[in-house]
């Protein structure tokens, strides 16, 4: 499983790696501490690293994805392909062909239809009274 993950650039960090196997003996403790003896099957991994190394010293074209040069270059190409091609291009095409949610195109067509209809009838495009003043019911004048 780990070899498959590392092939795709998905290796576990050292903090999550599997520790060496440890066994606790079932015999009675011989010392005065009162705890079971713990024995290591493998010797602890000795680090030969001398601190952090600048990744640009090993790979001048370092992109920040991996310390391996081939994997770093491959991951950079995948990320930029997905970011530019898929999200920007296909996202723009997808949003362009979405239906008219706020009905702006319908409102424009309806306004153009009403303008043509009013011009055929000889009426002004917009009348001075939007509502018919004879149908407006006003409150009675208040006595002051």
TrEMBL record:
Top-rank taxon, per record: Eukaryota
Region described as Disordered: spans on this chain: 21-61
A Pfam family it matches: ESSS
TM spans (from-to): 78-99
Bias kind Basic and acidic residues: ranges: 40-52
GO cellular component, one term: mitochondrial inner membrane
Compartment(s) of residence: Mitochondrion inner membrane
GO biological process: heart development; vasculature development
UniProt family annotation: Belongs to the complex I NDUFB11 subunit family.
Protein name (record): NADH dehydrogenase [ubiquinone] 1 beta subcomplex subunit 11, mitochondrial
């Amino acid at each position: 499983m780990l070899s498959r993950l590392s092939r795709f650039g998905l290796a576990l960090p050292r903090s999550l790696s599997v520790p060496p196997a440890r066994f606790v003996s079932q015999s009675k403790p011989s010392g005065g501490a009162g705890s079971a003896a713990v024995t290591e099957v493998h010797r602890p991994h000795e680090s030969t690293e001398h601190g952090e190394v600048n990744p640009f010293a090993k790979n001048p074209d370092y992109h920040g994805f991996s310390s391996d040069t081939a994997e770093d270059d491959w991951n950079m190409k995948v990320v930029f392909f997905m970011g530019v091609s898929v999200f920007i291009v296909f996202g723009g095409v997808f949003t362009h062909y979405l239906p008219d949610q706020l009905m702006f195109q319908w409102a424009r067509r309806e306004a153009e239809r009403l303008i043509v209809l009013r011009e055929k009838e000889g009426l002004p495009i917009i009348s001075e009274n939007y509502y018919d003043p004879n149908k407006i019911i006003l409150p009675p004048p208040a006595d002051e």
